[in-house]
């Protein structure tokens, strides 16, 4: 089994991802969704937490060998980013969604050298908006953003367009297509659910709970 399938299985086992095709969730955006993802739940499982950390480390070493700083996106990727930085023995910073309204007013917390070669660790990529806001903040602070890694992506076409427009390379440990395959093989969903789940990914903003 490859890394992508293994990580997908970990997300299902830890209930970081829940699939409910017949009882959709409502996202903050108002979208109906047959899937809910909270990858912070993986932190409660030491073996899964460590496996995800090690998969990140391997990916970063292969794709971004010149990295000298790891950045996590608040709040979901702070812990995992810190674990990765610790294993790689690299400095770590994290990026807030907005500047603090008190104290130093920082958006980036931690020590980052001018011109640092940064890889961003994210827990989840949906449309890419918040993730790319973090990379923009790092660039504005003088960092060279080599790219972004994430545990999971929904593979929305709009996200791919946003990353291409921003000139940011994205590599993920697993993705929606792999997850659906693993969920089917492990009995989390039925074959008749698959078309509905595929239809949602193609047009989540208009999906109405049917294939």
Description:
The chain has 211 residues and is α/β, with parallel strands linked by helices. The chain has a single domain (3-200), classed as Rossmann fold. It has helices at 3-13, 46-63, 78-88, 129-140, 157-166, 176-185, 191-202; strands at 17-19, 25-26, 32-33, 35-37, 69-73, 92-95, 108-109, 117-125, 144-153, 170-175. Strands 7-6-5-8-9-10 form a six-stranded mixed beta sheet, sandwiched between helices. Strand 8 (117-125), helix 4 (129-140) and strand 9 form a beta-alpha-beta unit. The radius of gyration is 17 Å and the shape is globular. The two termini are 30 Å apart. 38% of the residues are buried. The model has no long low-confidence stretch (mean pLDDT 94).
Question: Which key terms come to mind for this protein?
Answer:
10 strands; single chain; 6-stranded mixed β-sheet; 211 residues; two-stranded antiparallel ribbon
